[in-house]
Design a protein that fits this description.
homodimer, Arc Repressor Mutant, subunit A, elongated, DNA-binding
DNA sequence: TTTGCTATACCGTCCAGCCGGTACAGTAAT
DNA sequence: ATTACTGTACCGGCTGGACGGTATAGCAAA
């Protein structure tokens, strides 16, 4: 089934942020990319903030989906959730490598209230980690490093190149056994 | 000696970003806070991007200063630079806790070119780490976790509370010996 | 004909950058 | 010492464009 207009608008907004940066995210442009009029956009989203809310939700859903997929394929044992996070964090096709997330968060930094759902997501992750990590500090440190990796990608920064990145992943996994 | 007008403008811009968010950073407001006119601002900074460039440079200088200070006080031995980063990253009075950095970076995400100096800073950090880390993966992982912490603070997210944060710091240092 | 959805036109506001000025300090030739 | 000129620092009004949001009309399916 073809995506609903609602989804098409979010897709368009994502594309704009990814390709042109947050500052270029306007209702007019989103409408243009989505192939509808501004009125159409404002029918589905009461305001620009509302549109950003929708984008955040989309991001959360993607994260959730990815981590669940990896979790299922992960062998059981201690640190199962932490190991899941490491693998998900290094998946080049996952959200972790999608620049849209960062630009989105940048947009949110303008209106911090819109971060609430993200905080909720972190809370649930925290619960998951607690449930199967023999050493919560260890798990927290590794997962925080995954956030650091994400941050570096967002900012277009690299502390290490791609093959060093692979060694980093292995090192992180070694610490989780 | 009292700060030059140049510095006063950057101070004003920093204050705005810290207190009101990136979106509120305008030339008029910066001029108002700095106590001069918009024309004055545009005399010292050719454009708004130029002003942001100045802010980035200020941020880099602060980081550099802080890390040098900590390095000198750090006992010699393996991972000296990595240990420095951990201590600096957890210093509540350091740049790592100054929301201005994050908001600034958010502003930069609008114009990724302005990130170039930051990349240069990371390159030099990378060199420093290499110089005294027996295991570069270990050092890189820990420092990346510091970035993750910074990211979480920027986004108003907490994966762990403050006392857990102290344990995290200790755990990171334990891994560097 | 009502409801769901989209299009068009328009308004008010905000803001970056421009530009014509002012004030003043140095400097140097008369 | 006066005059004429130059460069630096700063002022503040203006404008053109962008953008969020509103109002209203069209239109097709149920």
């Amino acid at each position: 089934m073809s995506p609903s207009t609602f989804d098409k608008i979010i897709d368009a907004a994502m594309t704009i942020v990814r390709d042109q940066g947050v500052a270029r995210l306007t209702l007019d442009e989103a409408a243009r990319i989505a192939g509808i009029s501004k009125g159409g956009v404002l029918y589905h989203f009461k305001s620009k903030d509302d549109l950003i809310r929708g984008m955040v939700q989309r991001l959360i859903d993607q994260c959730d989906q990815l981590s669940r997929d990896y979790y299922e394929r992960m062998p059981d044992g201690p640190y199962r959730w932490a190991r899941t996070m490491v693998h998900a964090g290094f998946d080049p096709s996952g959200v972790a490598f999608d620049p849209v997330g960062g630009a989105l968060l940048a947009a949110i930094s303008v209106n911090p209230d819109l971060m609430a759902p993200i905080q909720a997501m972190y809370d649930s992750w925290s619960e998951r980690l607690k449930s199967d990590s023999p050493d919560m500090e260890r798990a927290g440190l590794i997962c925080t490093a995954m956030d650091g990796l994400y941050f570096q990608r967002l900012m277009g920064i690299k502390l290490c190149d791609s093959e060093a990145s692979e060694r980093l992943k292995q090192h992180a996994l070694d610490l989780l056994r």
